[in-house]
Amino acid sequence: MKRNILLSLLFISSLLCYSAESQRLIEANNLYQKENYKAADSLYQLVLEEEGASAALYYNLGNAKYKQGEIAPAILNYERALKLDPNNEDVLFNLEMAKLQTKDKIDQLDNFLFTEWSKSIQNLFSSNGWAILSIIAFLITLAGIALYFFGTSSSIKKTSFFASIATLLICITSIYYASKQKDILQTHDTAIIFAPSVTGKGSPDKAGTDLFLLHEGTKVKVRSKLNGWVEIQISDGNIGWIEEKDLEII
User: Fold this and answer.
1) What is the dihedral sign for C-alpha 91, 79, 201, 231?
2) What is the domain partition of the chain in residue ranges?
């Protein structure tokens, strides 16, 4: 009896907490609609700390930052949203709009057509989305195998055989892309420049040779870290060192 009362109290408590957290998010959205972007920003960050990350929350926070003219934080949050929801058109559009406000226009290294094609397919779903698709494809494969062995006509056997092969390939592909998307979530090797301007050095010290100049909002790849310095690679392939305090990991 006491156990049942305790479980009931815990359930009610969780509902009240959920309601309070949801109300806080609603309040943040209302503040944003009223163009009180600074207050909405603070509340979104509070929700992020207390409820955890989500693509929608990073997107809203990015919008609040953008409206305040904080381009680098806006880009950072849009990029974090894309890691969780890589094919979100709203996030992609707003990210491109924010990038137009940055100073650096760096050429991209050309990738193989197949690499670009594979990446575009990979970004169709998140890691969870690909995992769900792989499970569905696997179940359909099992159903096709069952029909092949227990089907009563040759046409059913033939159709189920080829269908099983196709869905098995989809299952394997989905598992591969789910793994790739999970790696992106767990690997923190990209960052956004937060300093107004920073010079890439040839070595991890201030006396190093100046190689290139970057400005806030630029996305870089993190290669290694050493004594408060970070070796970065920019989109045109150039490599240099900057101080770790001048960037924020995505």
Assistant:
1) negative
2) 2-99, 113-186, 190-249
Look up tokens 């870089």; give the residue. Answer: 220
Cβ neighbours for 80, distance < 8 A, ≥ 6 positions apart? 53, 58, 250
Q: With H, G, I as helix, E, B as strand and everything else as coil, classify residue 18.
A: helix
Strands 247-249 and 190-193: antiparallel
Q: Residue 94: which of 111, 80, 104 has the closest Cα? A: 80
Distance from the first to the final alpha carbon of the chain? 49
For domain 190-249, which CATH number applies: 3.40.50.300, 2.30.30.40, 3.40.50.970, 1.20.120.140? 2.30.30.40
Tell me what pLDDT residue 13 has: 43
Q: For the chain, list residues with pLDDT below 50.
A: 2-20
What is the value of pTM for the model shown?
0.81
Specify whether the CB–CB gap between 228 and 205 falls below 8 A.
no
Which amino acid, one-letter code, is at 1?
Answer: M
Q: How far is CA 238 from the centre of its chain?
A: 25
Query: What is the per-residue pLDDT across 89-134, written as a single tens digit (0 to 9) for each?
Result: 999 999 999 999 999 988 877 667 778 888 889 989 989 999 999 9
CATH architecture of 2-99: Alpha Horseshoe (1.25)
Residue 21 pLDDT:
53
Token code pair at residue 151: 């089907």
Both tokens assigned to 210: 């100046």
